[in-house]
């Protein structure tokens, strides 16, 4: 979530950022109107408060004994003065009650306005970093790195579906029968390859890159989904559990892992924190029908090894570069060609301030396809989940920076291995680094 004070004081910059992200300005315009109304309500409340204070002071003067009885020995005069003061006192007290009532109404209206402002803020995306390329869509993305050479075949390469089905390691038809479209069953060496990739990725990230392995819940509550900005914007993308607790299946391990320290104040010396988590992921893929429906590219259920970092603000850009390099390392060890691009403002995810996409080469499509998206979210998510840290000397708590990325998407890595390591007879060579995870298997064949 954006900082309310930043938005209020930098309206032109926020407006430009939203336009660069192709985000409608309606919410921002409503925010401005509510903020103006809020300021008016505060001003009116201050006026009533000042009037009440003046009247309260008058009441204090009236109830002084010297003002009630005076210095006269004339009892009739004292009684008259007492009656007059009593009448004035009742009138003043009535004014105070009316003023208190008006102040209460104004304060309630102000609270309502502030609540609506926070709701509008929660629907605004993050502000892109200054070095993010400005552009309306993916056509403005910028390639910054290319690694490896796409393999050359002396035969027409098959896609992963034809390869997997011919080898008996991929069954889409029975998965559709059991559940529905966009689900898959992996069998035999195909299932073993998927498990090998998970273990290999976790081993590299924990032993080589210093991440702590964690196995989070696969169900989360609505507050956690709000914290990592799935809610309210992506409500329709989730698979919800229909009970009173409001749980949903996780769309990514980013949700439970980033929320691990929500509502906490960490010690600055304990940052950065690195977490690596395997999990299945569940997405309804609302609105994506017709795109990548063949095979494992876009499934309702898939697996990932997710990388999450919590960082000091001044170090998050450096940590972003490291996180991206950590994800790239998996492809390098598997000898899979890839490229890295920086996403333009119009193609970035909702919560990111900057994103690198890593795309692996798929011979059947003769193009690079996304296999990891590595984002620096700045303090955007930390504000939503109240994740803070405190520097030495009892300093005021600050919001941490959160980062996340796939290290990697398991299904798409599985696809890339099949397609890049395929042989003319339809068999699949196992990358050397995975063979120990495959119990020494060197080739998948009939």
Tell me the CATH architecture of the largest domain: 2-Layer Sandwich
Number of discrete domains: 2
Shape type: elongated
Strands, count: 17
Strand content: 15-25%
Q: What Rg do the Cα atoms give?
A: 31 Å
How confident is the prediction overall: mean pLDDT?
92
Distance between the termini: 53 Å
Report on the architecture of this protein:
This protein has 446 residues and is α+β, with helices and mostly antiparallel strands. It folds into 2 domains: 24-122; 138-444, 2-Layer Sandwich (BirA Bifunctional Protein, domain 2), CATH 3.30.930.10. The protein is built from 13 helices and 17 strands. Strand 13 and strand 14 (398-399) form a beta hairpin.
Properties at a glance:
alpha+beta, BirA Bifunctional Protein, domain 2, 2 domains, eight-stranded mixed sheet, three-stranded mixed sheet, 17 strands, elongated
What would you say about this model in short?
The protein is α+β, with helices and mostly antiparallel strands. Helices cover 42% and strands 19% of the residues. The protein has 13 helices and 17 strands.
Secondary-structure map:
Layout: H1 4-9, H2 11-20, H3 26-62, H4 65-69, H5 75-122, E1 142-147, H6 160-167, E2 170-171, H7 172-178, E3 185-186, H8 189-208, E4 212-214, E5 219-220, H9 222-227, E6 248-249, H10 254-258, E7 265-267, E8 273-282, E9 301-311, H11 316-333, E10 338-342, E11 354-362, E12 367-376, H12 380-385, E13 388-390, E14 398-399, E15 401-409, H13 410-420, E16 428-429, E17 443-444
Parallel strand pairs: 4-8, 7-13
Antiparallel strand pairs: 1-10, 2-3, 5-6, 8-9, 9-15, 10-11, 11-12, 12-15, 13-14, 16-17
Helix pairs in contact: 3-5, 8-13
């Amino acid at each position: 979530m954006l900082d309310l004070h930043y938005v209020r004081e930098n309206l032109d910059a926020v407006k430009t950022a939203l336009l660069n992200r192709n985000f409608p300005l309606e919410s921002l315009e409503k925010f401005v109107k509510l903020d103006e109304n809020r300021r008016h309500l505060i001003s009116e409340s201050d006026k009533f408060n000042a009037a009440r204070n003046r009247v309260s002071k008058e009441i204090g003067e009236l109830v002084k004994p010297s003002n009630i009885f005076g210095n006269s020995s004339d009892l009739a005069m004292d009684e008259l003065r007492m009656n007059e003061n009593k009448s004035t006192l009742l009138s003043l007290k009535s004014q105070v009650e009316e003023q208190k009532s008006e102040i209460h109404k104004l304060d309630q209206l102000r609270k309502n306005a502030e609540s609506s402002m926070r709701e509008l803020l929660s629907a605004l995306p993050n502000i892109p970093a200054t070095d993010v390329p400005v552009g309306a869509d993916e056509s403005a993305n910028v390639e910054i790195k290319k690694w490896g050479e796409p393999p050359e075949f002396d035969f027409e390469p098959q896609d992963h579906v034809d390869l997997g089905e011919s080898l008996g390691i991929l069954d889409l038809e029975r998965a559709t029968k059991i559940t529905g479209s966009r689900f898959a069953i992996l069998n035999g060496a195909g299932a073993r390859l998927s498990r090998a990739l998970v273990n290999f990725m976790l081993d590299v990230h924990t032993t080589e890159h210093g991440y702590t392995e964690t196995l989070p819940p696969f169900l989360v509550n609505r507050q956690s989904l709000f914290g990592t900005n799935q809610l309210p914007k992506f409500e329709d993308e989730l698979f919800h559990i229909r009970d009173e607790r409001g749980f949903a299946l996780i769309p990514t391990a980013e949700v439970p892992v980033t929320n691990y320290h929500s509502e906490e104040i960490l010690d600055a010396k304990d940052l950065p924190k690195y977490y690596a988590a395997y999990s299945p992921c569940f997405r309804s893929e609302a609105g994506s029908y017709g795109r990548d429906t063949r095979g494992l590219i876009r499934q309702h259920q898939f697996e990932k090894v997710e990388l999450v970092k919590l960082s000091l603000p001044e170090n998050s850009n450096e940590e972003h570069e490291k996180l991206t390099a950590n994800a790239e390392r998996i492809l390098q060890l598997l000898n899979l060609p890839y490229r890295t691009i920086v996403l333009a403002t119009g193609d970035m995810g909702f919560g990111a301030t900057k994103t690198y996409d890593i795309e692996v080469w798929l011979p059947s499509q003769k193009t690079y396809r996304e296999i990891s998206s590595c984002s620096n979210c700045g303090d955007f998510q930390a504000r939503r989940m109240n994740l803070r840290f405190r520097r030495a000397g009892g300093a005021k708590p600050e919001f941490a920076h959160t980062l996340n990325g796939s290290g990697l998407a398991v299904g798409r890595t599985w696809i890339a291995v099949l397609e890049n390591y395929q042989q003319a007879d339809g068999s699949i060579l196992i990358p050397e680094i995975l063979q120990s995870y495959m119990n020494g298997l060197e080739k998948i064949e009939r």
